[in-house]
Amino acid sequence: MENNMHTHSLPERRLLAIAAISSLLAACSSLPTQHDAKIQAAWVVLGENGQAIARAVTTDNICPSLAQDGNMVAMNHRAGPSTLPLRKTASKPEDSKPSDFPVLTCEAPLLPTTKTASVGGRDLPIPKPVAQKIIVIGDTGCRLKVADNYFQSCNDSEKWAFREMVETAARFKPDLVVHVGDYHYRENACPEGNKECAGSPWGYGWDTWQADFFTPAQALLKAAPWVVVRGNHETCVRAGQGWWRLMDPRPLKRGRDCVDESDDMRGDYSDPYAVPLGRIGSEQAQLIIFDSAKVPIKPLAKTDAAYKLYMEQFKTVNKLAESADFNIFIDHHPVLAFAAERKKDGPLNIFPGNLAMQDIMQTLNTTRLFPSKVQATLSGHVHLFEALTFSTDHPVQFVSGNGGSSLDTPLPVPLAANSTPYTEAKLDYFSNSNEVGFMTMEREQQSWKVQAWNKQGKLITECRMQGNKTECSNK
Fold first, then answer.
1. How far is CA 307 from the centre of its chain?
2. With contact defined as beta carbons under 8 Å apart, do 252 and 78 qualify?
3. Which residue in 92, 184, 305, 371 has its CB near the most CB atoms, within 10 A?
4. Which among 243, 218, 209, 125 has a CA at the least distance from the CA of 165?
């Protein structure tokens, strides 16, 4: 019987082998990526000069690898698992406990040329050369505080609506997310028998950071890189240990980690830095990030160490502002906005901007407070949205403090005649809202469109910024 089987030559066999391998690789690449279950969170934070840093929190005892454009790089160890000794906190000793971090925090810088990156099968958002759409949120955690006898309904997504707001904001597909501070509010235990917050973690350890921030913020952590601003809830006597282990983009250094109370002058203050936003047309824009976490309400004595420290930091702000045509100054405490407080059935008390900062800033920059190239300022702290423009030469002020934590009483509109957050500023436009929500800032060719939205994505206020001129209207 004649054999009709063909034998392949060596080159043909090589070609067949290559084809088989290619087909196998194609099949593998089409399989769903397996996520590393030990990774609790993975995100990108922007630091000094806009340096992008990939971060990951894992229950593993080694750091995961970071894939950048297909190249695997070992992530660096930032903070190892630890139960930190109990230190002085903002609460009484009986309402405090040691901060437990049974996780490893890892990090690695992203190269400026990176097109794709992932950690443990989770894709990371890559910074864009020009950030055109920015989401701004702030004051987001669920308040559990014995001193105020205030226990927010952390188990009710309507009464603590941070997650819903985040998911709405993520649908806007931002290039960048800015959080203006106060991530962590669950300081004390939920009282026994309180169903609204029953079972909530509390204290300053990882479980609380995870519940108050990382889990509900997931949709925005996936959507874009973050710029993080420190709030008064992240001082050393509060959630400062987690701030330095998890959030701040700069290196974690012994002595400024809020572990030892004797080092708090280092741990509670950090230098300003700039995050470039790229150039559109002839305009180079940037964010200037300022750590106001520890700033008091009343002016500091000129002999106070904190006064001297803040004065040097505001000199740095002036220098940083020279590097861009359009600067947005971002800190936690509003300099040019109002705060409101109503105790029980008493009258509504309205307060001006932060007097301690105003005092230092006017010493340096006279009555404008800010250097001439700062055209806008963003803050939180007051649990409202606010927009304020001035007929005097002052930057427009936005407050995005309505991110989900217990909301403040809204201010009356119109305000009483001659109301002002600063004695040398004449108010032109003012609006505010105590609906849970967020802001968007969109760069256009010659201007910025700034909009405030509620948690469902309903427009509240719209402003247009062009140079030193801003016009706003209610929607």
1. 25
2. yes
3. 184
4. 218
Taking the whole predicted model, whether its pTM rises above 0.90 is answered as yes
- Answer whether 202's CB lies under 8 Å from 186's CB: yes
In 230-256, which positions are buried (b, 16+ CB within 10 angstroms) versus exposed (e)? Answer: bbbbbbbbbbbbbbbbbbbbeeeeeeb
In order of their start, the domains of the chain are: 39-474 (3.60.21.10)
Task: Please report the DSSP string for 83-140 in residue order.
Answer: EPPP---SS-GGG----EE-SEEEEEEPPTT---EEETTEE-PPPPSS--EEEEE---
pLDDT tens, residue by residue, 372-411: 999 999 999 999 999 999 999 999 999 999 999 999 999 9
Which residue do the tokens 């910025």 mark?
Answer: 448
Tally the residues of the chain.
475
- The Cα 396–Cα 379 span in angstroms is 11
Amino acid at residue number 42: A
Instruction: Measure the CA–CA gap between 19 and 373, rounded to whole angstroms.
Output: 60
Q: For strand 226-228 and strand 176-179, is the pairing parallel, antiparallel, or unpaired?
A: parallel
| Cα angle 134, 137, 138; round to 5 | 150
Task: Give residue 110's identity as a one-letter amino acid code.
Answer: L
Q: Cα–Cα distance between 475 and 453 in angstroms, integer?
A: 10
Question: Parallel, antiparallel, or unpaired: how do β-strands 385-390 and 396-400 relate?
Answer: antiparallel
CA distances from 328 to 103, 183, 302, 432 (A): 35, 21, 27, 20
**Residue in this structure with the two tokens 């030469």, named with its chain if needed:** 393
Nearest to 179 by CA among 421, 378, 14, 327: 378
pLDDT tens-digit map of 191-214: 999 999 999 999 999 999 999 999
